[in-house]
Amino acid sequence: MTSETPFFDPGPFVSKDLNISARQVAAVVKLFAEGNTVPFIARYRKEVHGNLDEVQISDIQERLSYYNTLEARRQTILKSIDEQGKLTDELRIKIEECISKTELEDLYLPYKPKRRTRATIAKEKGLEPLAELILQQGQGDPAAEAAAFINAEKEVATAEDALAGARDIVAEQIAEKAEVRALIREAYFKTGIISSSPAASTEPDDQSKYKDYFDFSQSIGEIPSHRYLAIRRGETEGVLRRKLAIDAEPQIERIKDLCNANPASPFFSELEKAILDAYKRLLTTSVEIDVSVEMKMKADRAAVEIFAKNLRNLLLAAPYGEKPVIGIDPGLRTGCKCVALDATGKYLDTITIYPSQGAQQAQKAEIDLAAFIEKHQPQAIAVGNGTAGRETESFVKGLLKTMRKQIAVVSVSESGASVYSASPIAREEFPKLNLTIRGAISIARRLQDPLAELVKVDPKSIGVGQYQHDVYQQLLADKLDEVVVSCVNRVGVELNTASAPLLSRVAGIGDSLAKKIVEHRNQNGAFKSRKELLKVSGLGPRTFEQAAGFLRVRGGAQPLDASAVHPERYKLVERMASDLGAPLEKLIGNVEIISRIKLSNYVGGDVGEPTLKDIIDELKKPGRDPREKFEEVGFREDVMTMNDLKEGMELKGIVTNVTAFGAFVDIGVHQDGLVHISQLSDRFIKDPSEVVQAGDRIDVRVLEIDLQRKRISLSAKKEQSVKPPAPKGPRRENRPDNQRQRGQRPQKPRGFSNNPFAGL
To answer: Alpha-carbon distance 687 to 23, whole Å?
Structure first.
């Protein structure tokens, strides 16, 4: 049976999934088909798609990809079944109506090429008619019917041999029924329990990072992503054993109903045996794999979203700005590498000091660094927060006090600096400098402009993820790349100072063109206008359209080049200025004149209120930076290491990572502390991101210090409260579900404690 492949339109499905109108989805689909990028669509085509935001547009793109992949698989399956001569009209309709990959694969399973099974062997023995009698639940004597199939040549010696083979066929057919698999899968997610216990080779250790999972169970439908990923990691490391379970009895009864089992039929007992075999031997193992995969995908998506949110906040951290800076990469044995950068981030000079190697070296370090400061006149000194970071910070502050210099000393995260220093990008930028000097440059530049520096580093190396090495890596990479591109285009890029890695993230450009732009700039000097981009080899009008609005050229002949106003709207803005009787350069930044613009006069064609409002906002603050203003955070001078901490101590810290279970905070002791979700606010919160984000400055109080496990428990609550003790009691066995009362569900996971690190 063959037929022409129908046109597949994913739009209605995307619209339903995302609760976005079909008209808006169709508009975005058309814009994508024309080669437009997400940032460009979100910023400059608002009238076309009805003012959707960047997240919604990205979601449409993701769902389109899903349904297009689904459709490709659907056509492959239809072709395969058709070639087998088994594609009925009814089956075709079922397959064409599928909107999930799981459902589609369930329908294909009976027709999927498979290895030789007990059922195929039974079919080879000619036992299919007997299997059909069992399924039909008709009348007659099973033994007598089976006797007709006795055949010594086919190794069917007895009637029971025949019935056993027929039951194998029936069991496989039942196990491959899409509705049966859907039933069992649903049961796992609604009533199933996941449990974990020590692996056979594991000696339970109270100091183990997995101790909270040595006697753990929770509803499959309720387990948070971080707990599931932790169990999976423990299983991979050979420390934990994972188990999924459901109550078998009700599922078997439901399968009987689906198979129209008739207790009055003489064949009922045979069907019942086949159903039980199908459930125990074929269904549970297979469906548990499906459930585990779905749980993993769900956990991966949740973890990736957390990572993406943290990365976004980190990339959009407040920049210190275009000011001269000294960067210091602390070190004990090899000394502290100090570099001087100018306001644009250009490397100027370097020295190495040894403040931790005795009094004589410390004195020399003071003299050398003081001379270095006097020579380069920095407005800030960035000190890496790694080994010896706090000691170096204290040394610098002491020296500045002696020098009577009012220079900011800022602790800067080193996450990613070492990765950058050894990268091809760093070698290309500074081929004659060693790793540690490159690392110091990265630390200094990260203070000046976190975004511009961090785009050079693989996001996974920045240190803000949750189980980032355990999730599906392509999903993670795609999402993080999306975040980086979004942040770069939101902030905008200085065309004449941006590095190739930064330019490559601008909408429409990419790695190859970014390098060509830098080469053109090096050979011909600074760009005097956006229009000059068209002189770059390989950069055509289409790319220019996508990228131009996100690039800034300051001091050029066209003042709008320094703003986010797109070149396609220059004539419109010039018309506004002309109507007001003001030169263009006088209009830009003049709120009083701009306030006189009547938007309704300029609505028409492809220009509506959303675009006009964006233009007005940009004219008021041309080239504005959407990031927050930079603020210093000062760690306590008397707290350098974990040994200096005391319970009840109040500290200032920086949120370094937000997870599903809480927030990690740098308090200046080389080990981040954890504020558990229960300690983040005086009110109940479901998600830590409700109250904190990566990069936030917060006040915390020390609850507990575990020196042996290097864990610090913190609280951000304003009202002090007594910590509730961890529940104690006898260890409970992990009973199978069929030994629990039917319908009973745990109120909280076994193994749960009030330890803020539980579930890591």
So the answer is: 33
The CATH architecture assigned to 325-448 reads 2-Layer Sandwich (3.30)
Q: What is the pLDDT of residue 327?
A: 97
* CATH topology assigned to domain 123-310: Tex N-terminal region-like (1.10.3500)
Q: Would you state the pLDDT for residue 408? A: 93
Give the span between the Cα atoms of 466 and 226, in whole angstroms: 8
Q: Of 346, 311, 350, which Cα lies nearest the Cα of 448? A: 346
pLDDT at 744: 42
Q: Could you tell me how many residues make up the chain?
A: 760
Distance CA 269, CA 262 (A): 9
Q: What architecture is domain 642-715?
A: Beta Barrel (2.40)
pLDDT at 4: 55
Residue 683 CA: distances (Å) to CA of 686, 691, 696, 717, 719:
10, 10, 19, 9, 11
Bridge partners, residue 350, by sequence: 339
What CA–CA distance (Å, rounded) separates 111 from 77?
A: 9
What is the location of CATH 1.10.3500.10 in the chain?
Answer: 123-310
CA distances from 724 to 209, 662, 688, 694 (A): 21, 18, 20, 28
What are the DSSP calls for 362-429, one per residue?
A: HHHHHHHHHHHHHHH--SEEEEESSTTHHHHHHHHHHHHHHHT---EEEEE--TTHHHHHTSHHHHHH
Would you state the pLDDT for residue 119? 95
Question: Cβ distance 149 to 127 under 8 Å?
Answer: yes
How far is residue 319's CA from residue 321's CA, in Å, rounded to a whole number? 5
pLDDT for the residue numbered 207: 61
**Range(s) of the chain covered by CATH 1.10.10.650:** 11-111
In whole angstroms, what is the distance from residue 712 CA to residue 705 CA?
Answer: 5
Residue with tokens 């590498």: 337
- In the chain, ranges of CATH 3.30.420.140 domains: 325-448
Q: Which pTM was predicted?
A: 0.83
Please give the structure tokens belonging to residue 38: 């997400």
- Residue 290 is predicted with a pLDDT of 94
User: Phi, psi (5° rounding) for residue 457?
Assistant: -110, 140
Q: How far is CA 737 from CA 188, 244, 746, in A?
A: 11, 10, 11
3-state secondary structure of 657: strand
Nearest to 507 by CA among 494, 488, 480, 531: 488
Predicted pLDDT at 201: 80
Neighbours of 557 (CB within 10 A): 9
The Cα–Cα gap between 245 and 744 comes to 13
Cβ partners under 8 Å of residue 72, min gap 6: none
Per-residue three-class SS string for 97-164: CCCCHHHHHHHHHHHCCCCCCHHHHHHHCCCHHHHHHHHHCCCCCHHHHHHCCCEHHHCECCHHHHHH
Longest dimension (CA), the chain: 107
Q: 371 vs 366, 375, 399, CA distance in Å?
A: 9, 6, 11
d(CA 381, CA 411): 9
Question: Is the separation of the CB atoms in 225 and 295 below 8 Å?
Answer: no
Cα 57 to chain centroid, rounded: 17
Phi-psi region of 542 (alpha: psi -120 to 50; beta: other; left: phi over 0): alpha
Question: Residues 258-270: pLDDT tens digits?
Answer: 999 999 999 999 9
The SS3 assignment for 714 reads strand
Q: Are 42 and 53 spatial neighbours (Cβ–Cβ below 8 Å)?
A: yes
Phi, psi angles (nearest 5°) of residue 674: -110, 125
pLDDT of 740: 38
DSSP designation for 7? P
Collect the ranges in the chain with pLDDT lower than 50: 1-2, 722, 724-759
In CATH terms, the fold of domain 11-111 is Arc Repressor Mutant, subunit A (1.10.10)
